[in-house]
Amino acid sequence: MKKTRNDRMDIRNDNRNDSRNDDRKRIKKMIGYTLALILIVAGASGIGHSPLLRRPASAPSAPAKGAAAVAPADAAADAAGIDRPTPEESRRVYDIVIRGGRVINPETKLDREGLNVAVEDGRIALVTDRPIAGERVIDAKGLVVSPGFIDNLSYDPNPVGVWNKLADGVTSNIAMHGGTASPGKWYSYYARNRTPLHFGASFFYTQARNKFALSRYDSASPEQIAELTAQAEQALNQGALGISFSLEYVPGIQAPEIVPLMRVAQRYNVPVYFHARYSDMEEPGTNLDAIRELIGYAERTGASVHVDHINSTGGTFSMLRSLKMLEEARDQGLDMTACTYPYDYWGTYLDSARFDEGWQKRFRITYKDLQIAGTSERLTEKTYKKYKKEGKLAVAYAIPEEDIRESLRSPFVMIGSDAILEPGYNNHPRASGTFARTIGLYVREHKVLSLMEAIDKMTLMPARRLEKQAPALRKKGRISRGMDADIVVFDPGEISDRSTVEKPSLTSAGIKYVLVNGQVALDEKGLHKDVRAGQPIRSEFVRYRVRSGNLAIGGGRQVPVVSYRGEDYVDAEVLKLQGYSLRWSREDRAFKLAVGGGGTLGAEAAAEARIEEPEPGELLLERGYRLEWDGGGAELLSIGSRGYMPIGTLRSFGWTLSRGEEGWRAERN
Fold it and tell me: What global pTM score does this model have?
């Protein structure tokens, strides 16, 4: 889709001045003291709850001094992410409290009514069933409180479409279908224009190759491929979240162009998003061939692959078989996901390769099954030719309903709109209604999904698809303490899409409040277009510079220690010094640990260990690989082909760790 920029946007400054902040703090203190007295009285009279202390989620809960042991219900609440505020937290007056809602957090499977969510300084401070006070209180009784929706298959956040996204509950707009060839300029532009949604983009290969004036049916030369590959690597270092290809629209892009960029993506641990090559089941070139091609690239390079809108490309008329192929690839250890949208019609430009000769047979439709977006006009042969020359966008009623349902049911398929509203409104209605429609139609009415499953597909799953190298997304898609306050509050009985092919700009119904970065961007008064709280979502890479110290192990042998985000790691090869062997399992994406050599510290076992210091500049990556042994496991940090484990893992294998001025020391118990 085309980019639209408006440099003349009226940007209002919503920053608070210092004096207002000081006044607010004084008021908060006064209210806080009053609330404290109320809570004390309430507790003494048995009205409130016992103020049990809450410890960090990683530590076991214990009762406050003088209190009874934690009840099983409280332990379950802790596990689900329900906080038990300390007295100090109970006295505090928060910026916003969302009170009494049904909170759904897909990460912990929390789904409970009557909870309060406290927001402070753009973050979620508490999720609790205890009374808490806020400068602003949002009554959410009877409403669902969900993480803000993440649209990972959108386009540039133009100043028209972002507001329809917000009204549909979207708080992060990520242009992974398309994107940019120049992420440095792209991010700077949308930051300057104070975009109301969080924003990110892929390196868009089609746009990058356009500089060579290649037609859609031309392939790039080896020299051009080398230049584009270098450009892709540069783009990732400028923040691009991955690499995207549109093979059906540019069929000249073949394996010699794709594989080098996928190797870059694998090296940098970012996904490759594909609009696959085929959208039908007519030979030559079927959906199954398209899926087979993408699986082949993943096998050949080890890169992560995402299939764009599988309901309209790669799965139409073949959904169960296409999903089965992807499932089998995943079972073999390949990192493959897909997305879908809840419409039984797709839309694209009439002058695209999708409408090359034979489209009626391929898509099993005729002219009358095409409708110009933004109008009620169905096409004839004559009008089709006219609008094809004009490059109009049309919708095609060509997706079997059962394909939508099967794609929604798949556990590795998430939601993506593949649209954003643009000036002129020649757009697909999914630009305004994808997320509300998913819940209203396929959860409430058709009962294809549970509400938890739908919210997972619209929040946590897209966050996890991209968060390995985009730390900002690790704080999104969840409702729990410390997460970003990107929140949508909706009426589960009312939420629905209102946008239509004729009127794609109609905003969704039933979405009551939307918070972006802790600021209310939509409420009972409507959209607040002075709230511009969006932040860039970028890839960030950590490279090895110098060892943070040494570990003395196995008779004084010194091995390098690597520091990553505040934690020390050591090469898992050190376990061979204790007589273990390591075996890589691609299916499980894990190094399996087994006892070898009787578990002794013999010279032969020690000699097998190849522990080398990483080269300066090597990438430190979280690929999701694990070290596994009978009864335990640990997440690994990847440096090249080697796995580094948290240094504390050694305690699980009979070592005592100590740290002094000269570094770490490991001694056998």
Answer: 0.88
